[in-house]
Specification:
Blueprint: H1 3-10, H2 22-34, H3 40-50, H4 54-132, H5 135-154
Helix pairs in contact: 3-4, 4-5
Length: 172
């Protein structure tokens, strides 16, 4: 015998590897569902019941654990992806809400600034009108301005502030 023939005989398995039948796989699946770890007693018992070598049972368990782990990781990844998509959608909504609120604030500041400028102009006219003695016209202008300022602040003029149905649902 030459060296090559003796080497190939060493690596030939004692049992020829056969595919498991559907019934054998069903039995292994049921056993795996009960416990995904295989102790030596259970391995020998399953091998005897199935009529396969214990090593084949051990390898099946090892492969099944690897597939099970990959499946659970895929499910976890999908769940995290859904949560991420939802969070990104919420972020976009909040950014739009922030932009809308900034625009509202800017409009309100412009109204207040214009009201302050008009009020300060009327105040300076009031001091000069006191000197002239014609303050009744000025008082009527001030009263109109006060009403306009009040209307601006409560949102009656120009829809400067959101109505009750316009409010955001940030904390709901």
């Amino acid at each position: 015998m030459d060296f090559f023939q003796s080497q190939t005989r060493k690596y030939q398995p004692k049992f020829s590897k056969k595919r498991l039948t559907k019934d054998q796989v069903r039995l292994l699946e049921a056993s795996f569902d009960l416990n995904n770890k295989l102790d030596s007693d259970r391995k020998l018992q399953l091998a005897q019941e199935l009529g396969v070598p214990p090593r084949q049972v051990a390898i099946w368990y090892q492969n099944k654990r690897a597939r099970w782990k990959n499946q659970s990781l895929e499910l976890d990844c999908k769940a995290l992806q859904l949560r991420l998509d939802s969070a990104l959608g919420d972020k976009r909504k909040l950014e739009k809400e922030i932009e809308r609120l900034k625009q509202e604030l800017q409009k309100a500041q412009e109204v207040l600034l214009s009201c302050n400028i008009t009020y300060s102009t009327l105040s300076s006219l009031s001091t000069s009108a006191d000197e002239d003695g014609s303050s009744s016209l000025l008082e009527d202008s001030k009263l109109g301005l006060d009403k306009e300022l009040y209307a601006c602040l409560i949102g009656a003029a120009g829809d400067q502030f959101p109505k009750s149905d316009d409010r955001h649902d940030l904390f709901t």
